[in-house]
Amino acid sequence: MGLPRRGLLALVLPAAGCAGAPPPEPPLQPIGYGYLTPLPLRVGVLRIDAADPPPPPGDIGATLAPTPAEAVRIMARDRLSAVGTAGEAVFRVTRAGLVRRGGGLTCQLACRLEVTGAEEGEQGFVEAAARAAVSGSEASRPQAAARLLRRAMDGLNVELEFQVKRNLRAWLVPAAPGGALPAPPAGEVTREDLPRS
């Protein structure tokens, strides 16, 4: 014996309503790279410049936490360290912008790492950059800007590691067994500049 027509509609309509609802977005994890193999440098001091580059026109990065520039500095703090006895490494954010334009989002990031040794002429540098963009419905999803920043940061992190290993190989200190960070020399500390007023 079949169900009455009204009862059948009541069963079908709620199911159809559920099928059209998109699944909830998973929560965003904090930006961090401490789980990756470190890049210890043969310098006595690592300085991470706290100055932000000029924002591009239409930038919305300041509405994010962390901002694009701070996300790049988080990467530097997590990946780089000073484990030598002399010399200095300076890390700068050279581009950090997230722009909404024409229904789309574009994130552009770039950084520069300069190293100077104790001996005259002992120096080197690398630059890394990454770009990511979304458009259409993906650009209007909840937390689309924050998700795009994480995608661009993943690209920048990979590019920075590649450039350091290729162009600053002589400045890298081999990691201890198991990927542990070599201990910094006694009395040596890393430092980060305070923001300029």
Question: Characteristics of this structure?
Answer:
single chain, 197 residues, alpha/beta, Rossmann fold, 5-stranded mixed β-sheet, two-stranded parallel ribbon, 3 helices
Could you outline the blueprint of secondary structure elements for this entry?
Elements: H1 5-20, E1 39-41, E2 45-48, H2 68-79, E3 80-82, E4 88-101, E5 104-116, E6 123-134, H3 144-167, E7 191-192
Parallel strand pairs: 1-3, 2-4, 2-7
Antiparallel strand pairs: 4-5, 5-6
Describe, in plain words, how this protein is organized in 3D:
This protein is an alpha/beta fold. It has one domain: Rossmann fold. The chain contains 3 helices and 7 strands, in the order αββαββββαβ. The protein has helices at residues 5-20, 68-79, 144-167, and strands spanning 39-41, 45-48, 80-82, 88-101, 104-116, 123-134, 191-192. A 5-stranded mixed β-sheet has the order 6-5-4-2-7, covered by helices on one side. A hairpin with a 2-residue loop joins β4 (88-101) and β5. The longest helix is centred in the C-terminal third of the chain and has 24 residues, at 144-167. The protein is elongated. The protein starts with a helix and ends in a 5-residue tail after the last strand. Residues 7-18 and 185-190 have low confidence and may be disordered.
